[in-house]
Amino acid sequence: MEDVYNLIQERNARETLPFLSIHSSNAFLRSHVDTLQDRCESLERQYLDQQQLVAEQAQAIEVNTNNAPAKNEARLREKNAKLQEDLNRRLQDEVKSTAEAAEVSKELSVLKEEKAAQDATISKLGMEVTRCNDVIAHLQSEMDDSKTLARLAEKQVDGLKDAIRSLQEENDETTKLNKRLVDEAVAVKEKMAEQFNNMNDTIETLQKEANMLRSYVKTGKGSGGGWFGLRRGDKKITAATAAADAESSIDSDDSQPKRQWGATVSAVLPSQPLFTIKAHKDDTICVRYDGTNLNRVATASSDATVKVFDTSNGHLEATFSAGGRQPLIGVDIGGDIVCGCGADKTCRVWNQQTKRMIHQLAGHSQKITCVRLFPGEKSVITGSADRSIRIWDIARHIYTQTTTLRHSSTSNCCDVSGETQSIVSGHLDGGLRCWDVRTGDRVLDIPLLHDVGVTSVQWKPGNHHEILTNGRDSTLKVVDARTSSVVHSFSDPGFRTLTNHASSSFSPDGSYVAAGSGDNGIIFVWNVTKGELEKQLSAHQCGVAGIAWGMGGTNGQQVATIDKSGYLTLWA
Questions:
Q1: How many H helices and E strands in the chain?
Q2: CB-CB contact of 472 with 452 (8 Å)
Q3: 3 to each of 8, 17, 310, 485, how far by Cα in Å?
Q4: For residue 361, which of 260, 292, 345, 526 sits 20 to 30 Å off, Cα-Cα?
């Protein structure tokens, strides 16, 4: 409070300093006016005295006119003339002094007016000072209240920190307990499944034995001896024969073709370009192999087209146009379904057989940055710059939006696991998030996995808890979703990621990861087990925009790369 008072005193000193000269001049003029007034009064008294003297002399002259001599009369007249001249001179001086006094009086009145104005200003300043003092007092009171509230808030924050710490500890314990219970439940389910399988095998064997025994009973009726009309020596033979028949029956059942889930395909490391194709006139942004393992690869480009090529011979099979000039950013293909998304806020779905568009998915408010087909090609997932991920049902004639997943950053990329029904998305803020499709809940959130944006994500084939990511920090990382930790990290001085949609890929068996550099066009292949760079390949004349590593179809061709000049390279 003392500092505020000193500041006000300094301000008053600064504001009154310009008026000091005016006050000094005003005091001087008032003193001068008083002097002039005294002088005027003195001159008036002298004038009256002179007038009286002249009158007395004139009277004396009149009285003594007849008696005084002529010489005395002349002397008196001369003296009278001198007195008259002196009186005139003094009158002139008096007139001049009166004029000066009038002028000084006028200046004094002006100074008085200025002084009155200055007094009014000083009064206003005094009122302003009073108001400022009131404001300062109010602010001081508010500051004291704020300090009290701040202290209270600090105490509350400390309490919240303690509560959060306690909740985190409880959450960690709950997570550990949940993980242990899940592991136990999985183990119990696996054991129960194995027991059920053994029971089914035993039941089938017993049923076959029972059928065989019934047939022996029917054929051996009336022969007498032994159980069910059989000899005792034949009972062992019958059981052994039934067991052998059951085993042969089981072996014959296993020889039938079955669909195998989670089976992986061995990787074929790329060695040299097999086909180099001018796929688009503008830069190519995305490349994807057919998810159903057909000999097809699809590309999306800034020229607003999606093109499908035969990996056996490099021939163009189909071209799908989005219309207009808005670039297509993402593409996916599975069986007869081709999807392409782009900057016009929609995702188009085409039929490969009829070459017609069957759906145009609209609902995002910003550009769509990525698209993926669910296994079975009945649903589509799209990610957008409007910070949402949407799931669409395209199985019917009219599409429907089934689920919306919201987050805090643009999703540059996404991938879906068909077996766990989980979605993984990489974001512009460098974070990685996983979602449960069935509930719509976010089950994993790893912020700042990369220093800048995540450009590509992919579930590891045959292992649905590891995720490959590529980031704008020019680093590939393999993340374990169970522990939210990075298990592998790959980089190289010659490898650079320069776009928000640069892709990377696992090999079909998950043994290798590959990505293309955005500046020099070199393809890098790392060994996941060894954590080392396996090989470098060079075939592009400019930066690589994307890479895909498929299962090989029927011809064994697995790796495709695209560059910024629109070229597609299929590797042998």
A1: 4, 28
A2: yes
A3: 9, 21, 84, 56
A4: 292
Q: What angle do CA 372, 373, 375 make, to 5 degrees?
A: 135
Please answer whether residues 304 and 331 qualify as being in contact, where contact means their C-beta atoms are separated by less than 8 angstroms: no
CA distance 551 to 546: 17
The sheet carrying 504-506 orders its strands as 504-506, 512-516, 522-527, 532-538
d(CA 427, CA 34): 91
| CA atoms 303, 308, 309, 315: torsion sign | negative
- What contacts 569, CB < 8 A, 6 or more positions away? 273, 275, 276, 277, 539, 540, 560, 561, 562, 563
Under DSSP, the state recorded for 227 is: G
What are the structure tokens assigned to 534, written together? 């396996």
What is the SS3 assignment for 509?
coil
User: Which pTM was predicted?
Assistant: 0.56
Closest by CA to 452, choosing from 491, 408, 499, is 499
Largest CA distance in the chain: 218
Q: How many CA atoms lie within 13 A of 371 on its CB side?
A: 36
Angle at CA of residue 63, ends 58 and 69, nearest 5°: 95
For the stretch 312-352, pLDDT in tens is 999 999 999 998 889 999 999 999 999 999 999 999 999 99
Residue 158 DSSP SS3: helix
Write down how long the chain is.
Answer: 572
The answer to whether residues 297 and 306 touch, using CB atoms and an 8 Å cutoff, is no
Q: Which residues pair with 442 in a beta bridge?
A: 435
Nearest to 34 by CA among 95, 115, 104: 104
Residue whose pair of structure tokens reads 């001085």 in the numeric block: 493
Q: Would residue 534 be called left, alpha or beta, if left means φ above 0 and alpha means ψ between -120 and 50 degrees?
A: alpha
The two structure tokens encoding residue 371? 């698209």
What's 326's DSSP letter?
P
CA angle 70, 73, 79 (to 5 degrees): 145
Comparing 47-61, 265-279, 483-497, the range with the smallest average pLDDT is: 47-61
Which helix H or strand E contains 105, and what residues bound it?
Answer: helix 70-219
Q: Is the dihedral of CA 251, 256, 261, 267 positive or negative?
A: positive
Q: What is the C-alpha separation between 497 and 485, in angstroms, rounded?
A: 22
Strand partners, 275: 570
